[in-house]
Each structure stands twice: as structure tokens, then as C-alpha cells.
Amino acid sequence: MKEKQKVSVVTGGCGFIGSHIVDRLLVEGHMVRVIDNFSTGRLMNLDHQKSNSDLKIFEKDIRNIKDIDPVFQEADYVFHLAALADIVPSIQRPWDYYSSNVLGTYNVVECANRAGVKKLVYAASSSCYGIPDGFPTKESSEIRPQYPYALTKRLGEETVLHWGQVYGLPVVTLRLFNVYGTRSRTSGTYGAVFGVFLAQKLAGKPFTVVGSGEQTRDFTYVTDVAEAFYIASVSNIVQEVFNVGSGGTYSVNLLCELLGGECVHISKRPGEPDCTFADVTKIRTILGWEAKVSFEEGVKKVLENIDYWKAAPVWTPDAIRNETKDWFKFLGRGDKL
After folding, report:
1. Do the Cβ atoms of 240 and 296 come closer than 8 Å?
2. Which residues contact 86 (CB under 8 A, 6 or more apart)?
3. Which residues are catalytic?
4. Less CB within 10 Å around the terminal CB: N or C of the chain?
5. Cβ distance 194 to 182 under 8 Å?
6. Where are the domains of the chain?
């Protein structure tokens, strides 16, 4: 008797990380249903799969539970990545972030629970740690979100874990550290460093380095992250939180060197850690996952696909200063640029 085809729902599946998870699931023979409202996701991220009959894309918003509920029927797995990201817009429009990242997550776990899924894997954020006391940072470290985006992602994580605790929904949450790679966001919002730098490189402009550039980040390549989601989904582990990081931490100056280009320095920003560095002992020990793509190899892959960022805005120091005024106003307790 032929085994029933597995059905997976990926919220935010046309986005950066979500589209790579879709690719991974299709390789495994899953029927994949994507939910995306295209606020940041791009249909072109899955253009290479458009002839795949196992992929169905639904343009829906997770804030509307009645609209999304039918997509979850008879699903085996749920990968919840739909969310609003970036710091400045979360300060300026906190309700948008609460409605998407908290209410939307409530809707997703409710639909998943009704469907009786085998596992829900949630994309949590390492921003929940704020400015940690120690490195590498363990899952047991104090939670201290610095801005509304970080808080709403943490509240989403709490919701997921609570549905596991109270209703027995099989859940795992993955706290992602500085994911980069092909298909990263090109939206008009000032955000992740790779999107900013790649658009600047294409335009022949200098990289806008915050502070000295000696700050380090746990840059983790996106296909490694997609693999972590898949391994978490098929494991028998539930009700656990795992860091997902590269096993290293790399300076912004090193990134500039690998990308190749001139730099200009802009003001250091409040609420940002000097280092992000995941302790990945837990996920390596329990799930057997570890990152495989080196930072140098990952940057090379990105540069090979740099034309993707042609649509991204080109940020100048003056434009960044204007865009981040509220960042300094609120997170800096009124400090001026």
C-alpha cells in the first residue's frame, strides 16, 4: 500500500527563509501549501518551482483565521515563518507587528491544533536575548527584548510553547541568528545588513558601516537554517527551544572585506549588541544539526546571485540618518544623532 503523501503548510513561504524551506520539503516529496500575503515575500522566490504540481500558493493573511483555516486541513506539518521584521517600523507601527506576529501566530497555532498536525516549527528570533551577558549565548539566557519587533517575536514564541503545554500541540521553536543568503529581503525598509550592502555594491556606493565595524554577528547561511527546520519537524522532540547559529561570529569589517568595497562609518545605535553568537550545543546534541556552509562560502554564493538585489533601495548615510531617527529617539532615551 502506497504511503500517504505528507502535507506541509509554510506560512511566509514566498519569503527569504520560507522559500528555502519550501525547496527542502519538495525535495522530500511533500505536498506544500504556502500562505503569504506578499507584504515582504516575493512570488519570484518560488518561480523555479512553478511547474511543480506539489506546490500550491495561497495569497492570504495570517491575521484572518477564517481565511487561512481551510489551508491547514489534513496537514501533517506546519512551518510558521510569516511575520513582520525590522526594527524601525516596529517602533513606528507597533500594532502592525502585534497583529501579525502575535495575533497571527495565535491564528496559526489554533489552525494547526484543529488540524491535528504532527509538528509545528516556529521561527523565533535571537533578538529576544537583547544585549546578552555572555557569549556564546545559551537558550537559558535572560530574555530582554529591546524593541517591539523582538518583543512580538518573543510573544509569538510564548504562544507557540503555551499551546504545546496546554493543548498538547507538538511544537519546537528555533531562535535564528543573523540568517543570510540568496533571496534575502529587498523591501524599502532599512534593515538587514546584507540587503543594504549588496544594493550599495551594485550601485558602486560605499558600505555604510555602523560604528567601528568591529561588532560581530553569528551569520548563518539560509540553507543550513532550512535544514534545521526540516530536522526539527521530523524529530520526536517536542516543547523545546533551540538556537540556530553558525558556530562562529564574524565582524562587519570582515563582511566588507569579503564583499569588496569602500566603507563609510555611521553612528552606533542603541539597543544593538556588540556581538551575537549562538551556543549551538543543545541543537547539535539533541537534533544532530550543525551548520555546514562557511561564512566565506556563503558570501561567495550571495555574490554569485547579486543581481537579485537590483530592486533593493540604495541607502546613503543621510537617508539612514533620517530613517533611523525614531530608533535613536526611543531606544536611545532621547539621545540625538
Report:
1. no
2. 149, 189, 190, 191, 192
3. 149
4. N
5. no
6. 7-180+219-244, 193-217+248-275+293-331
Half-sphere exposure of 209 (CA within 13 A, CB side): 21
Helix 252-259 / helix 295-304 crossing angle, nearest 10 deg: 40
Pick the CATH number of 193-217+248-275+293-331 from 3.90.25.10, 3.40.50.2000, 3.30.43.10, 2.40.50.200: 3.90.25.10
Q: How far apart (Å, rounded) are the C-alpha atoms in residues 245 and 179? A: 8
As beta bridge partners, residue 8 has 32, 77
Cis before residue 136, ω within 30 degrees of 0?
yes
pLDDT digits (tens, 9 = 90+) for 46-86: 999 999 999 999 999 999 999 999 999 999 999 999 999 99
pLDDT digits (tens, 9 = 90+) for 150-209: 999 999 999 999 999 999 999 999 999 999 999 998 877 888 899 999 999 999 999 999
Distances (CA, A) of 188 to 130, 193, 267, 272: 25, 13, 21, 21
Output phi, psi for 242, to 5 deg.
-130, 140
Largest Cα–Cα distance of the chain, in whole Å? 69
* pTM reported for the whole predicted model: 0.97
Residue 222 near residue 21, CB atoms below 8 Å: no
Indicate the SS3 state at residue 282: helix
- Cα–Cα dist 181/265, whole Å: 24
> In 3-state terms, what secondary structure has residue 274?
coil
Dist CA 59 CA 38 (whole Å): 7
> What is the torsional sign of CA 269, 275, 279, 280?
positive
Q: Which residue has the cell 540553507?
A: 223
